[in-house]
Amino acid sequence: MSKSAIDFASTPVPSIYGINSFNDSVMRERLPKGIYRELKRVQQGETELTLEVAEVVAAAMRDWAIERGATHFTHWFQPLTGLTAEKHDSFISPTADGRVIMEFSGKELIKGEPDASSFPSGGLRSTFEARGYTAWDVNTPAFLKEDQTGVTLYIPTAFVSYTGEALDKKVPLLRSMEALNKQALRVLRALGNTSSKRVIPTLGPEQEYFLVEKALFDKRLDLMLTGRTLFGAMPPKGQEMEDHYFGYIKERIADFMRELNYELWKLGISAKTQHNEVAPNQFELATIFTASSVACDWNQLVMETMKRVASRHGLAALLHEKPFAGVNGSGKHNNWSIGTDDGINLLDPGDSPHQNAQFLLFCMAVLKAVDTYAALLRMSCANSGNDHRLGANEAPPAIVSVFLGDSLTEILEKLASGKPVEARNGGNLEIGVTTLPRLPKDLTDRNRTSPFAFTGNKFEFRMVPSSESVAGPNVVLNTAVAEVLSQFAERLESATDPTREVEKIVKETYQAHKRIVFNGNNYAPEWIKEAEKRGLPNIPNTVEALTEIVKPYCIDLFVKHKVFTKQELESRYTIYLERYIKQINIEARTMINMVNKQIYPAVLSFIKDTADTISQLKNISASYPLGVHEAFLKTLVEEAAALKEKTHELESLVEEGGEHDSDILSHARFMRNKVFAAMGEVRKHADKLETMVSKDRWPFPSYADLLFRL
Ligand code: ADP
Ligand code: MG
Hints:
Helices cover about 45% and strands about 15% of the residues. It is of the alpha+beta class. The strands form three sheets. Strands 10, 11, 12, 13, 14, 15, 16, 17 and 18 form a nine-stranded mixed sheet that branches. It is globular and about 100 Å long. It binds adenosine-5'-diphosphate and magnesium ion.
């Protein structure tokens, strides 16, 4: 395929970095000082955006965009499909004398009205009042996208109904960030911090993905329609040699990555590290962390850009959680921490007694939040793709646990049980007075099996699905931690000696929630038993996980912190179950189609030829050793019969599913327990047949083609 023409020698990275982003430096340069300062205050949440300010910003944005070749603008939003949506309008405005001028008003910047009645709303809108509107999110920079259609100005927005209900992934995320800000500030104030003005959850997602040859992708209906292979016998070689992980990056892939980086850097997205992952043809891209909502937007752009750039290179990027059975799937490592506007990382142990105390307190807030809301965290990562990973035979398990590392765990254990801990400079550790011993980044700190690991100055939540917006998991994380911080704040605000109170909170919280701490191997079967003993939830699949959304404790949490209303939660519950039902239905129908139109005919014709050959040989000589061929033919015929039978069963289940008129939960359970289970049976026989039928007859590319070709 074409080698990308990007040459970073003649086009140094700093010269292109962020050129397509209406970022802070562009705004400072192009906006009048007063307007710029006002906008900054809006971004900090200190004041509301006025139309006057918006007018000036819109004009500057328009000029900047037009200079760079833009003809259109779009409000860009994230409906509950998990994807992004956009509707393009041109800047042109005809004049009376037949010319046009390029216009973009403050109103057009701050509010859009996409006719978006077809997006899922879960009953929040009836069709006659279907319109929602999009509102500019001032914190993610507007950006330009260049593609075959030209250059377009993208305005990141939130999508709400006319009555103010959230219709997207962004609104709750912003609300959860606000909740965390509010409660964390209370705690900081109680600890004597008077300088930090805002607390911001930070996020640095690591995106895993596969690349396959586009020409091969196009030959597989399953990849095209469902994003994963529904069939495929294991190739002679899988990932057992571990020779792909961190291996050298092949030239064609390197070329793709170069162009991907180029596109992302132009958008001001800090693609930082890239490497080969565990499975063959699996890769990872990490961006540098930033505020959660911005990181979430940028991750959407990373995923989109991956797909776009891949197709320019004759490749297809697979973002599905489990494109291939038998090799590792893909996830997103959600590196998460809490920072202040004046640069303090609240999960950094630091060097001073004060920082240590602060760290221990916030760390315990996370611990308690994860233990209390483990089922919600699990829910936030549930989708039909992740069902193949979580709790299946690969990482991470469906059980949420926290890795703290041996050193930190030991310190907390001793503290909680009143045993002395040696302070860094000798003597006994006294929280807030003396310094914590150093926490060495020992090898176990690299425990890759933990679903929620402390990694030195942040937590890494590793259950997050690769194909989805990172909004959901972060909404839960931010809100759960906000709730615990509100409890801590209450205690600290009324304490006469806050330092002593911190010490008490740390000890009590650790003691009460240490059952969630697990530093061992999360893949070991013994852990499942141990976790059960500890009373940790082990939720097996998406459907059961989604039932958490409408449980009273969940509604209480989100309503209290103004992240979701009860109606919003109920609508999401419906939308996500509906989506699951549709996904399984599409997978099942694709499977049936592939069996009936591709696999079964190919197998029959192979059977015919095999049978013909055997009978011809019989005619030539009765003494030919045909027993083994006959046995082979018999197995073929049996497998073909079983395949057809199992496919029939699946067909009738799909039909039954279509007529399901009971409640949505039992419909979803039917899809999971009957339809999805029946799909496994069909696959078993098809995969067996693939190992028996000649390669040139098999109607689509094999796993070896898809995984090892590039
Ligand atoms: P590792 O190799 O252990 O996964 P890295 O240092 O490579 O760790 O970081 C992985 C990701 O974590 C990167 O995206 C990085 O930006 C992010 N990260 C680092 N610090 C923070 C933080 N304070 N908050 C959120 N994410 C962070
Ligand atoms: Mg990582």
